[in-house]
Design a protein that fits this description.
Chains A, B: Its cofactor is Zn(2+); Ca(2+). Chains A, B: Homodimer, may be a subunit of the RNA degradosome. The structure is a homodimer of 558-residue chains. Chain A is of the alpha/beta class and 558 residues long. Chain A has three domains: 267 residues, Ribonuclease Z/Hydroxyacylglutathione hydrolase-like (Metallo-beta-lactamase, Chain A), CATH 3.60.15.10; 149 residues, Rossmann fold, CATH 3.40.50.10710; 100 residues, Ubiquitin-like (UB roll), CATH 3.10.20.580. Chain A is 30% helix and 23% strand. In chain A, strands 7-6-5-3-2-1-19-20 form an eight-stranded mixed beta sheet. In chain A, strands 8-9-10-11-12-18 form a six-stranded mixed beta sheet, covered by helices on one side. In chain A, a hairpin with a 2-residue loop joins β8 and β9. In chain A, α6 crosses α7 and α15 packs antiparallel against α16. The first copy, chain A, starts with 15 loop residues before the first strand and ends with a strand. At the A-B interface, α11, α13, α14, β23 and β24 of A face α11, α13, α14, β23 and β24 of B.
């Protein structure tokens, strides 16, 4: 299963080439390209949210390098569902070429169109639904209903002359879903009987034993928590989780409460979901957030964002008393969401803040108020046994998830050599039912920071980490190049290092002395003097303070 | 339960004053001071490990401000057990006054003495054991055995003329512990019958329902994982977890394997534990790490540190192939530890790295290889019912843990107004069985960074966070104060902002123009010119790049 970095041979006619640009080795920025006979099909184009070692980054995109010079060959982008990690990079892709067609279900396209509107892009779209077939160049597509934590999700079967591929998108197999739209195992069975040459399954929960519990077990819990709440109830969830919002609406009605939606994305998404019939809003239950304040405290439920502790979202602002709704004794907060790894500190800071204000905080750890949207190991075994795929490329997961998914494939009889655990940029060629690793592209992370895309590099992030750990010291000197004598300076500034800048008085004479010695030894150029300053200050700060701040010398000719 | 910041009245004779300096609102830097009739007793002096929003900080100490001018009044420091969050600040306390007596059990004092040796301090110590009574000035101490994830832990009862206090230290109530040393509920019962006026219980797991599972359930799991391991086994755990190491030694022997201890603190602590009889090392099981490499792969277990993903510890270095032991296909890694919140990303990075190298990684989420060392809610209820304390001050927890513990007290009949959920610096006075909040001190965080203690401030950390998010731009100019004309510069440097520094060419003319205009409007001083530069660059970077880096102007007189 090793994947060395090597260049693939040119693609021969009749061979299908599969390259995941994102989603392998990370939960996010899902994007896979399929190429045959000169044409390219893309499945998903999502974003990844940064971790703490990527400070100040807003978003991370897949590296579009392999398709940048091939934009005219792209026949379309299939979007499996409307989550950010599957559609978030679409605006950046369409900025390269606006008329690439987007193919997806009604809800998925509505959500991506709302997003594109903010970027002032009107896309070309093709709405599809489960059971539908579409031909795009050499690709014959069939869409299959799957159940996930957002409605109207689709898997896609891709038939080519080289073989048949099934990409699940994100899915689970809730057998009693709220909208009765189950993952279509009959279609999976039929595809399996016809023969699936390559299967790309969601790996997110592949290392979770057993089965994801039923969505409908959540409703009664929400209802009973709301029933017991003496004052206001605030429920926080993902802004696209239509079914969770549905359950909150229903639980509110059962308790004679009204619901106010809070947060821009929550209002936008639920408006779309209602218009398209995915959210059933009981008559008169919704109330404008501003008017809700006039209701008695035990008659209102606020439905908000911020379940991951995001500092600017409604919930964190409430915890910091920076929101017009002032949380107090008797209020109940429900975090109806999973705790995404890496967000623990932020979430617990919010929970502590709300608790301190007197609120009761109900979350996944102390009540069954959320279930995952991804298939656990038990469900994946069903898929493998129904499909009996010839080859498996687990997608959508960190390395540990991909490995766990491959192990499940092997347990159901897929030969180990036909399971491919790889990284973004892996090149997999398929022909006559045989898949093989044909190359490995060296793909990067593309960082979005402010209005810049790809300007911030890994080197900048390394600098930022050093700055965060140690701060910096900058030393400015205008030097006589012949004598090394400072004409102006040394002028020393620091941040994140020490409050009292008089500490630098000790090193200034050392700098002047070192410059003089360097000149005596023949130094005459700016760069060499800079190095002298860097070394002198570096040695001093390390010996005297046992610290390693970034040292930024600026030596100019006087 | 509100605790406004207010100054306590001077302490009257015969009243006991309790002030937690650390451990309230955080898991770490536990330290509480008790004062009566002019004398001070300290219980524990621990450190807190920094979170991601405190970058570059090595350790966080309790604020010693309230005792700094009272060092001669301190009768001693009781150390309840040998974990860093209870003993780690002792060296910094003894640097203020070396002859403050330390009181603790054999193992606790051995561990603190080893630590003090590194700081070249030889302490005054008094070794005590369970059941023992000692008088220190106005404090009559009685030590009670408690069970925890390190041997030889003690609770301490403190009798004064103002009433009796019981401080649990850290504990749980494993009823079948490996060393048969259970938390002494007979002693708790006796103390309860005599009357406990103030109870300070460990809150770490107060929000975990039920009971902490038995330590001895771990052994068979470890044994079976090791039995099935085809090649090398690496177990990572806390370096002071004597019982876990004991279980690994026993499991290794049962499987005909030898054990190599890795990591300086692991070797040091286990050497002490063996010498004092707390660790039973079976004849011939230990082997030097260097010699272990000569054994067949299926005959060795490495016992290492790094279970929290610490980047410099053995395990993370193995995952990065920066360790002499090269992990490969067939190796088994066991993380026999809890995953401390906030460490998830680091730990999963290590797990992904090890998995990628071909190893199987067994951890708490997929096998029962660890149990907590702290009493869960069910155990705390036993304590409350046996003790029936008059007043309760939950310690050792974030706000949500303290609140959960107080709720348990109230459920067992402690009046709500007698439970005190507070923050570090809360002043609680006790007299005639009545406790009341008498003040709130404003205590800070004392940061240790390199060799500096308390030099780094919250302002520096704020600077570091901005630097991490956005990087910085520094602008140097030597200006003619009369005309605003730059004589040298503008010379612009940046880090963490953009790779290509030619972006700044655009703003340089704007700076020169703005300085000229300022001079025309009468500006003549350095500070005002600096502000002009800051505003000009700030506006440019915000408009052109939608970013907010730290802007550091250095304007000097030419």
């Amino acid at each position: 299963m090793a994947t060395p970095v090597f260049a693939p041979a040119p693609l021969e006619p009749g061979t299908l080439r599969v390259i995941p640009l994102g989603g392998l080795g990370e939960i996010g920025r899902n994007m896979t390209i399929f190429e045959i006979d000169g044409k390219i099909l893309i499945v998903d184009a999502g974003v990844l949210f940064p971790e703490e070692h990527q400070p100040g980054v807003d978003l991370i995109l897949p590296d579009f390098a392999p398709i940048r010079s091939r934009l005219d060959d792209i026949v379309g982008v299939v979007l499996t569902h409307g989550h950010e990690d599957h559609i978030g990079a679409v605006p950046y892709l369409l900025k390269l070429k606006q008329d690439i067609p987007l193919i997806g279900s009604t809800l998925t396209l509505a959500l991506v169109e709302a997003k594109l509107k903010e970027h002032r892009i009107t896309p070309y779209t093709l709405t599809v639904r489960e059971g539908q077939h579409e031909n795009l160049g050499p690709f014959e597509l069939e869409f299959v209903a799957v159940n996930h934590s957002i409605p109207d999700a689709l898997a896609v079967a891709i038939r080519t002359t080289a073989g048949t591929v099934l990409h699940t998108g994100d899915f689970k197999m809730d057998q009693l879903p709220l909208d009765d739209r189950i993952t279509d195992l009959r279609a999976f069975a039929r595809l399996g009987e016809q023969g699936v040459d390559l299967f790309l399954p969601d790996s997110t929960n592949a290392d979770v034993p057993g089965f994801t519990p039923l969505e409908r077990d959540i409703g009664p819990v929400l209802e009973s928590v709301i029933a017991k709440a003496p004052r206001r109830v605030i429920v926080a969830s993902f802004s696209s989780h239509v079914h969770r919002v549905q359950q909150v609406l229903d639980a509110a009605v059962a308790n004679g409460r009204r619901v106010a939606l809070m947060g821009r994305s929550m209002v936008r998404n639920m408006t779309i979901a209602e218009q398209l019939g995915f959210l059933r809003v009981p008559e008169g239950v919704l109330i404008d957030a501003k008017k809700a304040a006039d209701l008695p405290d035990d008659r209102i439920v606020y439905m908000s964002t911020g379940s991951q502790g995001e500092p600017m979202a409604v919930l964190a602002r409430m915890a910091n008393l920076e929101h017009q709704i002032e949380i107090g004794e008797g209020d109940t907060i429900i975090l109806a969401s999973s705790l995404i790894p890496g967000n623990e500190n932020a979430v617990y800071r919010v929970i502590n803040g709300l608790t301190k204000l007197g609120a009761r905080v109900v979350h996944k750890a102390n009540a069954k108020v959320h279930v995952s949207g991804h298939a656990a190991a038990g469900e994946l075994l069903y898929c493998y046994n129904i499909l009996k795929p010839r080859n498996v490329l687990p997608v959508h997961g960190e390395y540990r998830h991909l490995t766990a998914n491959a192990a499940l494939a092997i347990e159901t009889g897929v030969p180990a050599e036909n399971t491919f655990v790889g990284e973004d940029g892996m090149v997999l060629d398929l022909r006559d039912g045989v898949a093989r690793v044909a190359g490995q592209l060296d793909l990067g992370h593309v960082y979005v920071d402010g209005s810049s895309v790809g300007e911030i590099t890994d080197a900048d992030l390394k600098d930022r980490r050093i700055l965060a750990e140690e701060g910096f010291i900058s030393i400015f000197i205008a030097v006589d190049m012949q004598t090394g004598r400072p004409i102006v300076g040394p002028e020393i500034q620091s941040r994140g290092f020490a409050e009292d800048e008089s500490v630098f008085d000790a090193v200034k004479p050392q700098i002047i002395k070192a410059l003089g010695e360097a000149a005596a030894n023949g130094t005459r150029d700016q760069h060499a003097y800079s190095q002298v300053v860097r070394r002198t200050v570096g040695r001093w700060v390390n010996t005297q303070h046992r610290r390693r701040p970034m040292i930024v010398p600026v030596v100019i000719e006087a």
